[in-house]
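Q: Can I see a sequence and its folded structure?
A: Here is a first one.
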Amino acid sequence: MREYLVRTSHTPRPLPTGRWMMTQRWNDLLFAHWPIPAASLAPLMPEGIQVDTFQGSAWLGVVPFWMDRIKFRGLPSLPGVRSFPELNLRTYVRDQRTGTPGVFFLSLDAGNLFAVTFARTVFSLPYYWAEMNLKQRNERDFVFSSRRRLASTPVIFKARYRGLGPTRKLAESRAGSLEYFLTERYSLFTRNRTGQAMRANIHHIPWPLEEAEADIEQNDLPAAAGLQLPDEPPVLHYSRRLAVYVWQAERLLPVRSAQRIPAAAVPSI
């Protein structure tokens, strides 16, 4: 994994200070994205985080994949968390104080109870335990299903998707493109139990994206978050695998509000 630490020239800022906390590998991802009004997402953001837009629209993403090579710094591999499927509902935001771009997770479903508990405790991420099944039909063709456990109403996702192979256009996302906006982000944002905004820095090489096809049979995740998708097909991408380094989550510094000048300090005319 040394190459992922060495190659840093693509990142919009230097590597975070301190040591990374954990590493993991994300595999066989489908990125399904829809444009959505920023006003519908703004009420879901904690103070200090603002919705980011591309060509006037915010974007909502549903991302099924599976994770492996999970390792915590200084610890041996933990039994029972070597690999498991995961499903994310995400949007794209900026730190209101610094302008730092990142991903904001509205929900994360995973098929591993230990991972769900750990991520909720350490990273304050809104994880849910789910019954999941991922079948690989061939090298880049998958059937994915998820049903959230212990939910008062069913939250189900079912899809078949496949990558269409690398192309020169998507070999490395260029600044200013939609692909760059959606994937080249090196911070994860969430909120803690008291509602304060949190950020965890991450590092990886640029996403190796491919065009994709998908048949999404059922997708209850947006509705469970109080959101409605537009009546149009999603923008689709696929990625084979990516190694990721994650730093400890930290609370965002508050946004400084403009201070009022006392009337006595204003010169009279």
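Q: Show me another, different protein.
A: A second, unrelated one:
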Amino acid sequence: MLESGTKKRVAKKQNHIVFDKYELYTKAVQSPEGDVEFIWETYKEVKKKEAKTFREDFCGTFALSSEWVKFKKNNKAYSVDLDPEPMEYGRKKYLAKLSPEQQKRLNLIEGDVLKVELPKVDVVAALNFSYFLFKTREQLRSYFQRVYESVNNEGIFLVDVFGGGQCHDAIEDRTKHKKFTYYWDQTGYDPVTNEALFYIHFKIGSKKIEKVFTYDWRIWTIPEIREVMHEVGFKKTYVYWEGTNKQGRGNGIFSRTEKGEPCLSWIAYIVGEKA
């Protein structure tokens, strides 16, 4: 039987919210199940058949790859990242929860996407604007060239992109979630280089944890990305633009278009088709 002092300590521990930056990040900005469904349906729309193999570049905790192998019983995924910390987290958080058979279909590659040997796949995705870390056209072209060479002949390359007049301002957006608040902090935009610094902060209870994640990026535009895709060999490129709800905010539904809207802030996907 627990003594009264022990009971109090146990109760206090149960009420304490553990700070898990990767879990908060996933809840705030990712939707692995929805992303996998969108990628799978987009490939089927473009190629008129089902994708089986998928590579997640700059994968972090590889939550997306984990969902890919769960989505269809024959799906196979490859996850590439040079940072061992999030990959180790993913091994404990996601890989360990997969069945032994699913684990066999998920392959982890720790290394630089510009240097490691890359497997041939149906779909390559670089999401969460991760490729914005490439600040020159030459660097971006080198990465896109590697993707082109490692995509199957009937493969596609999918990236997301953001923009709008608001992304040139120093702002801090706040989004409240059930047990925490998420902050997207944008500062230091330079119109000469199109570079900017971004931070993610979290607030749990009354405590705000600053600069949990830092991003030093160049903001690439849709025309630039499409041009470089074509330069390295992608036959066609498509833009999937997000629709809006009644409040004028993004509704999470992306449709192919050749004409966007002059929104203050927008998100889109770009798909490169190899052949």
